[in-house]
Design goal:
Layout (H helix, E strand, L loop, with lengths): L3 H21 L29 E7 L4 H14 L3 E7 L2 H9 L5 E4 L12 E15 L8 E2 L1 H9 L8 H7 L9 E5 L4 H13 L20 E3 L2 H10 L3 E6 H7 L2 E2 L1 E3 L5 E2 L3 H9 L23 E9 L5 H15 L6 H4 L6 H9 L10
Parallel strand pairs: 1-2, 1-3, 5-10, 6-7, 6-8
Antiparallel strand pairs: 3-12, 4-8, 4-9, 4-12, 10-11
Amino acid sequence: MRSTSRQLAWLAFILAVVVTAAACGSSDDGDAADNPAVTSPTASAAVDYSSLTGTLNGGGSSFQDTLQQAVIAAFADVAGGLTVNYAKSSSGDGIAKLASDSIQFAGTDRPVKDGELSGGFLYFPVAAAPITVSFNLPGISELKLSGPTVAGLFAGSITSWDDPAITADNGTAVAATPVTVCRRSKDSGTTNNFTTYLDAVAPDVWTLDVGGTVSNWPANSQGGETNSDVANCVKATAGAVGYVDVADAIKAGVSYAQVRNEAGNYVTADLAGTQAALASATVEDNLIFDPLNAGGAEAYPITSPTWVVVKTDQPDGARATALRGYLGYLLTDGQDLTAGAGYAGLPSELRSRAVAQLDRLAPPTT
């Protein structure tokens, strides 16, 4: 568990990265403005950023919003003629807006469901990051929780923080404080990944729904539309527990637990644990990957993937070129910003596979 001072230090670093990105871009070699082409394994994906024009609108996943904002700020320094916007809401909302063509790319932390998108579309992996189990127990900043205990807290079978299961995880009684669950109110990829994890590690305890929406949350639970809303719910409510991406947990200044992994170790929701989980994830042909409950002594067990989803057929060549440009930057230079924003960047092989499919974005042939 990170202490409050270490959380604040990480938050300061995140903010510094975002500000620095806006000022000078993200290329390690410092010459992005002089050499603005995407450096990638496939020459066909290279785009002259300075020639890009127009506007791209994206939205959806609040989980990836911190990274999107950092990358967009850095991208503006090398592609001043192309405006990129990203509005956080939820994965389900992003996919729905992409389906209606009101945005050009959708952020999602879960795969697209059957019937949500018509026609061809592509997954572009963005990064991975931990889903924290954030809590508000005055005077307590360190906590250990096993998977079944987390399931009991969110299912409503554990109603007080002095429950024997929590005492057993920590070796001492915690607090005789009632539990309030803070959770997402809309179709959410974070909810999908969190409930999938709980169902995998504690199927006898997790008796609620599994997926992006849960209809049977505990009656006293409080809903929020985005990750930051859930983080603020935890911050404002003594005895609260919520599932929140690490960037928003740090921004809100809430504490979060160490969670026991498959190897039996209690692991902090940090970059090292996320990278360990990501390294052992299996990647499908369509670039879907699942780092939840990954093996390994250091793996953080509630590690979430996140993607950008884009329709394969674009209305014209300019739109296709703009998308190739921004996504190419996100997958190359933009990956330099992942750690500072609280995410684990893509392994090189997965990044190469994602870049290789950029040139599939094109107007339909007639």
